[in-house]
Amino acid sequence: MKASPVQVAGLPYRPRVLVVDDNAAFLDNMTELLGEEGYEVSSATSCAGALERVREGFDVALVDVRLPDGEGTSLAPRLKELMPDGEVVLLTGLGMLEAAVAAVHAGACAYLLKPCATPELLLTLEQALRQVRLHREKRELARRAQVTEKLAAVGTLTAGLSHEIRNPLNAAGLQLTVLERRVRRLEDAVQGPLLEPLLLVRDEIRRLDHILEDFLQFARPREFQPDAVEVAPLLERVRSLLSGQAEERDVALEVEPTRVAVVRGDEERLRQVLLNLALNALQATPPGGRVRFSASTHGGEVALCVDDSGPGIPADVQARLFEPFFTTKASGSGLGLSIVHAIVTQHGGTIAVEDGLLGGARFTVRLPAMTDAG
């Protein structure tokens, strides 16, 4: 069975093809043909028009070498500069050698002689899409390696530092408890002015203790023995734990029915991952919105997704979300998603964020599927 363009590209959307040619009939034919094959097609009749269209994005651009306001060989590198992950295929009527030389010099991944046969066109597009996929995977691998390196360095530092801070913090907390008991023995008129700052300090000590707990968990994640974790009960458990907060915020918590039976991992730690992601989703979703859990199987992996209908996450923020101490919140350690990343990595999985189907963000945790061999 022939793979669809979406499968070839490995994208969460229909691959986008930009066709740049000043022949109206050719553009109409390409739009109809590629649309039927599963591509999303946009078009332009000039270099200027193509540069305008780039704002909408593309995965592969089919560019005629001769355009009314310039040469396709000059346009190709400009398109590549604006869309580094995209690929350009030149359309030319030149001889074979001249076409190959022009394509290489322009940074195109391939060229097609006009008129081109449909099978040749579709095959060239598939090859270009595979290149697009490789570009994205390479960039993602580099990002993950960078995050992992930072996590390791910060983990070593925070382990010792957290213990050094926790000891005096515990002592301060104990003395504060003693002081609170003594204040509560005083007359009511005297208690008020003394209790207010005392309780404020107590709450701040607790907040610091929670931050330290994040540090320690991040620095030294505990070992676990992977086991079969039932997916549906796991999702329902997380929904149940957060139902009160969701009701207070007037946000609907949904669990999409799933046929995924089990995943390999530690139930408590996976619950922690989903709770963290869902809490972030709840905080980002306005009243009347939705947060949805779902699960699916792809090859040898299980994908656990958390979608929300919030405002989404800008691309520049998405790229840094799993970095330690990075946060967009006014308070917090900035380690929540770093801990999530560490837990997922410990499970042999991956985590990614992208624009979701509900209009907000989608976090996808991919884990090895449970096999018969365990």
UniProtKB/TrEMBL annotation:
<keyword id="KW-0808">Transferase</keyword>
<feature type="domain" description="Response regulatory">
    <location>
        <begin position="16"/>
        <end position="129"/>
    </location>
</feature>
<dbReference type="GO" id="GO:0000155">
    <property type="term" value="F:phosphorelay sensor kinase activity"/>
</dbReference>
<protein>
    <recommendedName>
        <fullName>histidine kinase</fullName>
        <ecNumber>2.7.13.3</ecNumber>
    </recommendedName>
</protein>
<dbReference type="InterPro" id="IPR011006">
    <property type="entry name" value="CheY-like_superfamily"/>
</dbReference>
<keyword id="KW-0902">Two-component regulatory system</keyword>
<keyword id="KW-0067">ATP-binding</keyword>
<dbReference type="GO" id="GO:0005524">
    <property type="term" value="F:ATP binding"/>
</dbReference>
<keyword id="KW-0597">Phosphoprotein</keyword>
<keyword id="KW-0418">Kinase</keyword>
<dbReference type="InterPro" id="IPR004358">
    <property type="entry name" value="Sig_transdc_His_kin-like_C"/>
</dbReference>
<feature type="domain" description="Histidine kinase">
    <location>
        <begin position="160"/>
        <end position="371"/>
    </location>
</feature>
<dbReference type="Pfam" id="PF00512">
    <property type="entry name" value="HisKA"/>
</dbReference>
<dbReference type="InterPro" id="IPR003594">
    <property type="entry name" value="HATPase_dom"/>
</dbReference>
<feature type="modified residue" description="4-aspartylphosphate">
    <location>
        <position position="64"/>
    </location>
</feature>
<dbReference type="InterPro" id="IPR005467">
    <property type="entry name" value="His_kinase_dom"/>
</dbReference>
<dbReference type="InterPro" id="IPR003661">
    <property type="entry name" value="HisK_dim/P_dom"/>
</dbReference>
<dbReference type="InterPro" id="IPR036890">
    <property type="entry name" value="HATPase_C_sf"/>
</dbReference>
<dbReference type="InterPro" id="IPR001789">
    <property type="entry name" value="Sig_transdc_resp-reg_receiver"/>
</dbReference>
<dbReference type="Pfam" id="PF00072">
    <property type="entry name" value="Response_reg"/>
</dbReference>
<dbReference type="Pfam" id="PF02518">
    <property type="entry name" value="HATPase_c"/>
</dbReference>
<keyword id="KW-0547">Nucleotide-binding</keyword>
<dbReference type="InterPro" id="IPR036097">
    <property type="entry name" value="HisK_dim/P_sf"/>
</dbReference>
